[in-house]
Design a protein that fits this description.
Helices cover 56% and strands 6% of the residues. By secondary structure, the protein is mostly helical.
Length: 372
């Protein structure tokens, strides 16, 4: 069991649920220390996104483009405005959930520092629930972008956008259906988990395991005692429950990674929706051109700035970015960390990605914009 000492890129949630007979068994203190490192790194990354706390201000540039695209009164302009509205809703939802996860991470850090195992287990379960929510919204975005691709009939496009907007509304405004004055019914945790299970097959086992420490029964009783009715100690030292703690810490670390990866994928699809607005600003834009799909034709081997991979068929910067990420996904190339700006050379932006195949260089034309 190597998870608490430093999870590897391809580890799954199941790896954290390993047997107590594993060769490498970290102490409870080591497991908690590893979780703290992961949590603090995650928190640091999330704090860079606080620019979006003033959401309306942060997306003002995108809003301006959407208004400009709709101004001519064409059908393409109307539909691009609708796409912008849906993209805005889903991006807001993503930031809402990321903000909550940021707060949960802060609570986990506090619980770990105070050696509060009960709260740490409860907050890890909450982390899993919010992973499920982000994943569900990501799946809705994937479905939206996929079903819009190649569409040219306005009535069909309107129906697709209506369904997406209703899903976003339900995700934000949804309440417990058993309560009074329900209005929008929230998606149940079962709905969210069913979607996540396609990506993480053993997530149901993980969630059940963590749930036992949240409810006032054997699991939570055990974590604050030595495990026998009417005898023993309360609040035993961390190492007494090392097997439980290393599992919970492993789940915490891997859930953070899944959240980061899922949020990234959701962002890629939001870029694709933003690109629809950019296409609407191109001269002669039509409904068909908004949603047409061009086959990416990669040029270059990506081994250096001089031979950086580019996509000459891209019409806009957003389409070029989408082609980059689709290229990485189609070739099963994993990305490690954020891209690095190498520079701007002869009108091309050179970005470098740390990947499972080493450094890969990509270039996009600075001339690709909505003003083209």
């Amino acid at each position: 069991m190597t998870i608490p000492n430093g999870a590897k890129p391809n580890d799954s949630i199941r790896d954290a649920h390993a047997s107590d007979n594993d060769t490498i068994v970290p102490t409870a203190e080591q497991a908690v220390a590893a979780a703290l490192i992961a949590l603090r790194k995650f928190k640091e990354k999330q704090e860079r996104l606080k620019v979006f706390d003033k959401f309306d201000t942060a997306i003002a540039g995108f809003e301006s483009k959407a208004i400009q695209a709709a101004a001519p009164g064409t059908e393409a302009g109307r539909l691009s405005s609708r796409v912008a509205s849906v993209a805005r809703a889903f991006f807001f939802l993503l930031r809402v959930n990321e903000t909550k996860v940021h707060l949960i991470a802060q609570a986990l850090i506090s619980a770990a520092e105070q050696e509060n195992s009960l709260v740490f287990a409860a907050m890890t379960r909450s982390l899993i629930e919010h992973l499920a929510a982000i994943n569900y919204q990501k799946d809705r975005l994937v479905m939206l972008v996929t079903t819009l691709a190649g569409q040219s009939q306005p009535n069909k496009i309107d129906r697709i956008l209506d369904q997406a907007h209703e899903s976003a509304k339900r995700s934000y405004y949804g309440k417990n259906p058993k309560g009074q004055d329900v209005g929008e019914k929230a998606y149940t945790i079962a709905d969210l988990m069913e979607s996540l299970q396609k990506q993480v097959p053993d997530i149901g086992d993980v969630y059940s395991y963590l749930s036992d420490f949240v409810h006032p029964n054997w699991g939570s009783n055990l974590i604050v005692s030595t495990g026998e009715l009417g005898k023993g100690d309360l609040n035993p030292p961390l190492q007494f429950h090392h097997a439980i703690l290393r599992k919970v810490c492993g789940y915490c670390i891997l859930a953070l990674r899944e959240i980061e990866d899922t949020s990234k994928e959701a962002t890629y699809h939001l870029v694709a929706l933003q690109d629809v607005v950019d296409r609407a600003l191109l001269p002669g834009a039509t409904t068909a051109s908004l949603f047409s799909v061009r086959t990416p034709k990669a040029v270059g081997d990506g081994k250096s700035a001089e031979t950086a991979i580019s996509f000459p068929t891209a019409r806009t910067h957003g389409e070029a970015v989408s082609m980059i990420y689709n290229y990485l996904k189609d070739n099963r190339i994993e990305i490690f960390g954020p891209k690095r700006l190498e520079g701007i050379v002869d009108g091309y932006i050179i970005d470098v990605f740390e990947t499972s195949r080493g450094e890969l260089y990509f270039r996009t034309n600075t001339e690709l914009s909505s003003s083209q």
